[in-house]
Amino acid sequence: xxxxxxxxxxxxxxxxxxxxxxxxxxxxxxRIKKVKGTGLETIVKNPTTKTLNSLIDAAQQLQKExxxxxxxxxxxxxxxxxxxxxxxxxxxxTSTLLLVPLVYRMLGKGKKVGIITADxxxxxxxxxxxxxxxxxxxxxxxxxxxxxEFSSICSGKKTVNTKKLEIEVTSVARSLVQKNHDVGAxxxxxxxxxxxxxxxxxxxxxxxxxxxxxxxxxHNATHR
Length: 224
Fold this sequence. Notes:
Elements: E1 2-7, E2 30-35, H1 40-45, H2 49-64, E3 69-72, H3 81-86, E4 92-93, H4 100-106, E5 112-117, H5 125-130, E6 139-143, H6 148-154, H7 162-179, E7 183-188, H8 197-204, E8 208-209, H9 211-222
Parallel strand pairs: 1-2, 1-3, 3-4, 5-6, 5-7, 7-8
Helix pairs in contact: 7-8
């Protein structure tokens, strides 16, 4: 199985079809492990060593329970990629941001990787460097934090208007490529956006990478 570290704080998107937090998204077994004390504040806004230690303990439990690889439900865990990978003996892939160096090298000269994140201001150089995103890799980063439906979910709204969220995601993607004609592919950092990968691809006509696709790839690599 694939182990998935998820926030203790629940959000309205947790049970959507197509999100990594929903076991029905996959056609293979996954084990969900809620990590005490994790949520928007402790993962995205103010990551601390205490939170990291909780994630490490949970990852080690997943390994003991038979997980062949471990992922997470938030791309901002990229900041702890090395620490989490070092804490267990199975592959750990904290974030789709790990794909950015690969995607960049797949593109032609002068092309950039577009990144759609939950909160642009919170995605720091520390996050990027932790997964190998540095010179000469060129990226364009846009955030969802100013979108009404998305931000209301992050603020604790209990229900989600999936159609409105899709409109917001595709609008942000459209603006990204209109303002940056050199973007050759898009990586969705935010795991809540996975249900809209197809819509983003349809809108931009570009390759789009998300956490569900990455999880399927790792499963194939570990379960031949």
